[in-house]
Design brief:
Largest sheet: 9 strands, mixed
CATH class of the largest domain: Alpha Beta
Structural class: alpha/beta
CATH architecture of the largest domain: Alpha-Beta Barrel
Number of strands: 23
CATH topology of the largest domain: TIM Barrel
Strand content: 15-25%
Helix content: 25-40%
Radius of gyration: 24 Å
Number of helices: 14
CATH superfamily of the largest domain: Alanine racemase
Length: about 475
């Protein structure tokens, strides 16, 4: 049986020395693990900056009307990462008051911020109004009422996008979870149910609100630009209808969802086979370059509004911006061989702490030493948790592993830090490596950090002291 090929480290901007040790900018990954400990998130700073700038340049070059690229902070809200995204020239999209606070802390002005999300409290909406954010994307009729009342009280007139649920499900995506699915997702105003027209009617009697256009989001991890054509056509139809009703909308926000090139979500069938039988899906070819998504959508909008004034187009990429430019180092602490049963490598990070997305996504795993060795074994990579489900991957083709080995889980820049927990362990450090050397973006949690907000624990310690 032919052994699976070793993934090419250069896909992630890594190199291997003569001995097969992986390096980032000539820094051995094993030395990063020794210096900062494991688990350890490592950011490839130069590639992140370069890619984000390329997205912005592509948007400006391919679309001749007004255009903006807003990074979706929900996928990676680490302030040091957000600061790099801002340095690259991208604006920001936030979904919570915490994210709004973070955006301001790293230097974003209100005019660079779009606010999204299905659960905007009055406190959050008020903070958005006080910040004079660029757009608030309204998710429901009830939210529209609250926004109207608060804007009137504060004597402000915010620009509003209506988030529409278009009932569009990209091919291969689960209709039960696609963000553009009417039956599977609660996001947005129900287009087929008439909520969009009801919302438009309210603007006629809401002088404190300015209707600016539409927002939609059809899914995540989308691998083909052609999947966005129905979304563009829906936005074109909505814009024309609004103009016929006497409005002058100027903006269409296509959302994000562009896949990371070198990782992907499991399909529903793949998930079933993996969870039931431990069968990982076969490796797949990289998805389209995210710049191709921007190019395709820009050309589709040009075609839809040929000879007319072009609307402003907004893109909200997230995982494709940060996902491929961060990886996670884990150290093997024990290896167990059971004849006829399998091989387990127990590491210091797993599903319960730092690898939640591996439950439903396919990511490459590279040994940090001897990277060119054949993947001659099928190893189940475990985390440190004292429960059977603390698994990184089952039956993963790998070279043989031994205690002390360091492995790199690739494409961890989207939703890994966002979903991590300190289940029994402090959360890991985050370090970026760039042309100017190493920068610690987040220090490793101490034991005291993990209980510093627990009042009873602190009081008990003080009494005992």
């Amino acid at each position: 049986m032919r052994q699976p090929a070793i993934s090419d480290p250069t896909l992630w901007g890594l190199s291997a020395d003569a001995g097969g040790t992986l390096r980032l900018n000539d820094v051995p990954l094993t030395s990063l693990a020794e210096e900062f400990g494991t688990p350890l998130h490592v950011v490839h700073e130069d590639r992140l900056l370069s890619f984000a700038r390329r997205l912005q340049c592509t948007a400006e070059h391919e679309y001749t009307g007004p255009v903006a690229v807003h990074f979706a902070m929900k996928c990676n809200g680490v302030p040091g990462i957000v600061r790099l995204v801002r340095e690259a020239g991208l604006r920001i999209e936030v979904m919570s008051e915490l994210e709004l606070h973070t955006a301001h802390r790293v230097g974003y002005a209100g005019c660079d911020i779009i606010v999204n999300g299905p659960c905007k409290s009055e406190s959050f909406i008020r903070a958005c109004l006080e910040s004079h954010v660029r757009f608030i994307a309204v998710d429901s009729l009830a939210e529209l009422d609250v926004l109207e009342r608060l804007a009137a009280e504060m004597d402000l007139r915010p620009e509003v996008l209506l988030r529409v649920n278009p009932d569009i499900v990209p091919r291969g995506m689960n209709a039960g979870s696609a963000t553009g699915s009417r039956s599977g997702c609660a996001f947005g105003l129900d287009l087929k149910g008439g909520e969009v027209r009801l919302a438009l009617a309210r603007f006629h009697r809401a002088p404190s609100l300015l209707f600016a256009g539409y927002h939609l989001h059809i899914g995540t991890g989308i691998r083909s630009p052609q999947e966005y054509l129905p979304a563009v056509r829906t936005l074109e139809m909505l814009l024309r209808e609004a103009r016929m009703l006497g409005f002058a909308p100027t903006t269409i926000d296509i959302g994000g969802g562009f896949a990371s090139r070198t990782s992907r979500e499991f399909t529903s069938l793949e998930m079933l086979k993996y969870q039931a039988f431990g069968r990982l899906p076969a490796p797949s070819a990289p998805s389209a370059d995210p710049c191709e998504f921007i190019r395709f959508i820009a050309h589709a909008v040009h075609h839809a509004f040929a000879g007319e004034r072009l609307p402003e187009v907004i893109f909200e990429p997230g995982r494709c911006v940060t996902g491929p430019h961060q990886f996670l180092l884990l150290k093997v602490h024990a290896v167990k061989h059971r004849p006829g049963a399998g091989t387990w490598a127990i590491t210091d990070g797993g599903l319960g702490t730092v690898t939640m997305p591996t439950y439903y996504e396919a990511h490459d795993v590279l040994p940090c030493t001897g990277v060119s060795r054949p993947r001659s074994e099928h190893i189940t990579i475990l985390g440190p948790g004292c429960f059977a489900g603390d698994i990184v991957y089952r039956n993963l083709p790998m070279p043989s592993l031994a205690p002390g080995d360091v492995i790199a889980l690739m494409d961890t820049g989207a939703y890994f830090t966002a979903l991590e927990s300190n289940f029994g362990h402090p959360r890991p450090a985050i370090v970026s490596v760039g042309r100017n050397g190493k920068t610690l973006l987040r220090r490793r949690e101490t034991f005291d950090d993990t209980v510093c907000r627990d009042v009873m624990a602190i009081e008990s310690h003080e009494v005992m002291s």
